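The authors assume throughout that readers already know how a fold can be written as discrete tokens. In essence, backbone conformation is discretised, so a fold becomes a row of integers matching the chain in length. A single example would do more here than another paragraph of explanation. For illustration, here is how one protein appears when written out as sequence plus structure tokens:

…
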Amino acid sequence: MAERTGLVTFKGGPVTLEGQGVKVGGQAPNFTGIAMDFSGHQLSDYKGKTVVLLSVPSVDTPVCDTEVRRFNEEATKLGGDVVVLSVSLDLPPALKRWCGAAGIDRVTALSDFKDLSFAKGWGLRIKELGLLARTVYIIDPAGTIVYEQIVPEIAQEPDYDAALKAASKVAG
């Protein structure tokens, strides 16, 4: 399996991402995430919509909590043709508990615990931690990746303004 270094740190120390990664301008690799009710949701289910795709290490950490809450708030401003998906390796019952407590109603939280199809297909599993890197992708209605933000320090929040600007541009 390919490995990428020099892209991400955790508390200042370098970490390794497993896999090739994806490219802006390329087709978004399909994956199946497991929802809070254990149903499978494929990225291809959202073709025809603009997708804001987040990957977070764990919703039970302060930075991930803040990030998903922020995108949940901003989702209402993006319009009905935009969906926000948040993928982590948290188990579905943990996602259900957290989303219920946080009032998350505009972000679809998905778990990649079952077969790591997102982690493998997008090259975002952190070898040293067994978690996903913090990223934001924007995918246009045709399934093309039009924006990528790999947050260089896992313990930091993404650049919300840049991601939201990209999503708004695609959504029209």
